[in-house]
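Quick look at the format.
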Amino acid sequence: MSQFYISDTRSPSPGSRSASDSDEDLTTLPFAQPLQRSDFLAPDFTPSTYLSTLSNRHQTLEDLRSELRSRSQLLSRELLDLVNANYADFLTLGNSLRGGDEKVEGVRVGLLGFRKEVAGLEQLVRGREEEVDALVRQRRETRKKIEVGRRLVEFEERVKACEEGVAVGEGDGSESSESEEDDDDDEDGFGTSVARLRSNVVQYRLAKEVVKGLEEHPFVLAQAHRLSKVRSTILLDLSTALQQAKKAGDAGSGRVMQLMKIYADMEESGEAIKVLKTLKK
């Protein structure tokens, strides 16, 4: 029978040992260690590679086969015990799954009902959102209307102020506060003061500015004739004042420059040029 063992490296002399001595040598070899369970659990385990590592065992091939067979039987019993241990749980799981269709159907019906409720809530929320959007738009429109109304009221007040300003009697000498604004303005020999003319132009421009963008509004169109009359009156006063200052020669040169500036502020410089051309003729 073949054996795995390590032979003695020393060569005995011929006839120095008997058969009984050879048997005694075999019994003195180290006892083979049991195969380790962990050796079979290696991730890269292969039978051929594993058997090649057993060449240095002091064990016969028959003993090795017997030990491997025992190891295989032991693993088979462990596997059977494992299956038996879990078989009861497996059967219990199968029994618990019986009637699962009814439970699944119950869950499905519940989910359908929940989805229907969610859809109802979504529809309600959308309705609320549309209602809020409509209210927000209505609020914006109301604010716009309020702003337009405020501007129209202010326009009426400023047009009235313009009418009162141009209706003040020409040559009125009670303009002490306005004369303080223009100390260099000599009223002697001239008509309406430059300060009064400048104030009227400012009121006129403010009246136009407050309704900028609302020129086509019915109320503004209805008051257009009033603003046009104010413009005509102011231009007439400016024309008269410019003619008087121009005729005064050097004494009125400063007043001419002031009046030209008022024309420019009123955006009516063309009217001033017309007046000057008339005077040259």
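Next, a different chain entirely:
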Amino acid sequence: MGLLDSFERGLERAVGGAFAKTFKSGVQPVEVSAALRRELDTKAAVVSRDRILAPNDLTVRLSSPDFQRMSSLGETLIDELTELVQKHAAAQRYTFPGGIRISLVDDSSLSEGVVRVESASVKGSVVWMPVLDIDGTRHPITRSRTVIGRGSDADITLDDSGTSRKHIEILWNGERGQVNDLGSTNGSLLNGERFTQAALPPDSVIEIGRTRILFRVLARAERGGDQSRGSAR
């Protein structure tokens, strides 16, 4: 499966039926993601033998109807686009001067179906944003400890009788993750292997009961910083 295919399938899983209802015409999300990849490839610059620098501040300009459709998906779309940009950069061995920032802009000068991307290289700190994808729902991790299970006192409650009331905990220190089994009855799997305590790298899959949990980490940009903007496409 290619990057664009996995992007669109991931977005469909995240927003469910809203995807099919929203995108019957105009610019499709996969066209936006393709435009972002082209912008990276066009603006990537070789700065040394082992470093290719790509712009990390990306502005997507859309007609008003297309902007309204895209915006209706909220942060879910931005998260999926950010992950796709990360993966494309890793595959091409690009580096960024800071965290990734993707913005959607309503541009009344554009016709429906047209997408333009502007880019800038912005120096700044990276904010690592961990998220959990569970049964089509995205759960941002906003605390250092997140408990998952079927009990109402868990931070994320699952409708899964195969899980314990407090089945696992996700620990996050701002840069790295860890997952611990909290003495569950049926145990837990991390990337297919049983565990009681384990480091949690990005793109890991946790299985508890009948529930599959995908752990991802997005590189977001802090606000502020010096920038050099590229030309519109």
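DSSP finds five helices and 18 strands in the chain.

See the schema section for token definitions.
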